[in-house]
């Protein structure tokens, strides 16, 4: 059709790349306020405690209270590692579909922890979900990312997992 939107224009590729990189930078920047100092990890423990103090989903709050908070040095380190890797891999565009799914999961955890905290803005969490779904749906690493460079090798080697992740 003459009026059909073409999805392979240069502008579209740049916009998809921008969404991926900005979403990655969101995670990189958010690591800074968590104060990566074990065992309490600064603000991360406070926001995790909010899942108990302002429950969104009672079973999740129970899990946080009885499993996550007692084992916080481990869970804090894992959260920090996931968010550093998530941001880095989205910025460079490596395995972007996999990391978009990780971002959706991490956004869900954050939403269940902080959504009902007084003064929180619902739309910030909705926008985080939308950004990750956009990266997932567009395979954003295939434009200006490492996935674009390595994908032909993965196809030649028949590496289905990396093809799926990219």
End-to-end Cα distance, whole Å, is 30 Å
Percentage of residues in strands: under 5%
Low-confidence stretches: 1-5
Largest sheet data: none
Mean pLDDT rating: 90
Structure overview:
By secondary structure, this protein is mainly alpha-helical. It is 72% helix and 0% strand. Helix 1 runs antiparallel to helix 4, helix 2 packs across helix 3 and helix 5 packs antiparallel against helix 6. The longest helix is centred in the N-terminal third of the chain and has 23 residues. The protein is elongated. The chain starts with 9 loop residues before the first helix and ends with a helix. The N terminus is likely disordered.
Summarize the structure.
The protein is mainly alpha-helical. It is built from 8 helices and no strands.
Describe this protein with a few key phrases:
166 residues; mainly alpha; 0% strand; elongated
SSE layout and pairing:
Blueprint: H1 10-32, H2 43-53, H3 58-68, H4 72-92, H5 96-114, H6 122-138, H7 146-157, H8 160-165
Helix pairs in contact: 1-4, 1-6, 2-3, 2-5, 4-5, 5-6
């Amino acid at each position: 059709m003459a009026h059909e939107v073409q999805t392979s224009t240069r502008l579209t590729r740049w916009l998809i790349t921008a969404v991926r990189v900005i979403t990655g930078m969101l995670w990189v920047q958010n690591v800074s306020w968590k104060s990566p100092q074990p065992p309490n990890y600064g603000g991360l423990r406070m926001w995790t405690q909010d899942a108990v103090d302002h429950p969104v989903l009672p079973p999740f709050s129970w899990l946080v209270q009885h499993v996550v908070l007692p084992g916080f040095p481990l869970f804090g380190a894992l959260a920090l590692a996931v968010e550093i890797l998530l941001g880095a891999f989205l910025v460079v565009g490596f395995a972007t579909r996999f990391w978009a799914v990780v971002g959706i999961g991490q956004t869900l955890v954050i939403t269940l922890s902080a959504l009902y905290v007084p003064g929180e803005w619902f739309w910030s969490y909705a926008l985080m979900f939308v950004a990750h779904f956009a990266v997932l749906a567009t395979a954003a690493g295939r434009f200006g990312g490492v996935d674009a460079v390595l994908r032909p090798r993965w196809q030649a080697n028949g590496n289905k997992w990396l093809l799926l992740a990219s």
